[in-house]
C-alpha cells in the first residue's frame, strides 16, 4: 500500500515501497488511473493534477472544492481497489536510432568503459523493451527501465551546455532521450529523428506516457535524414503496437 504525506497546503504525496521496479511503478500507475476514473465518473471533485514518479504519486487539489479530510477518506477507500500487479501488456513504440559517430558524441567512451565493440553496444541497447517509468527533468524526457548492466556508464564529469533534441544517452543505470535541445550530463550514444515533444500539439505534446514501452531500432545515417524529413512534413508513420510483458 501507500503512505500519505503532506506537501504544502494544496498537495498530498503518496509514497509506495521505495524501490525502482516495474511492479511498484505499475502500482503507482494503477492508483493514478483509479483516481482519474473517479474524477471522470464524478466520484470525487477538486483534484487539479496528478504527477506520477518511480514510486510516488503527487496529488494537487483545490481545498475550496475538496476538503483535506474528504480526500483522505477517498484515498483510504480506494486502497482496496488497487492490486499490486505488474503490467501484463501495454502499448510499445518503436524508436529509430542512428548510432553514427556524428550523433553518438560519447559512443567511443561508453564502448571503452564497458570493454565492448560498437556493434555489441548497438545490439545490447536495441534488444530490451524499455518501460517508461515516468516523464521528468524536462517536458517529455522519459526515464526508462531495462538497460543492460553491461552498458552502465557514469555521467559526464562536466555537463555539456547544449545537447541536441533527440539525443539518446546513458547515465549510470539508465538510458533516456532528450526531447528538446538543452544542457545535460548524460553520455550521448545516438540520436533519433522522432520528436519526443511537440509544443504545437496542445492535446498530446509528448510522444510517450508513463506505463508505455519503448523499443529502439538501429538505422543508417541516410535513413535518419529520410525519417527526419518525413517527421518535419508530418507524414511519418510511427510503429506502435501492443507489447505483452510476460
From TrEMBL:
Pfam families: CT_C_D (PF02682). Keywords: ATP-binding, Hydrolase, Nucleotide-binding. Gene3D superfamilies: 3.30.1360.40, Cyclophilin-like. GO terms for molecular function: 5-oxoprolinase (ATP-hydrolyzing) activity; ATP binding. InterPro entries: CT_C_D, Cyclophilin-like_dom_sf, PxpB. Residues 2-208 form the Carboxyltransferase domain. Its EC number is 3.5.2.9. It comes from the Bacteria. NCBIfam families: 5-oxoprolinase subunit PxpB (TIGR00370). This is 5-oxoprolinase subunit PxpB. It comes from Campylobacter jejuni.
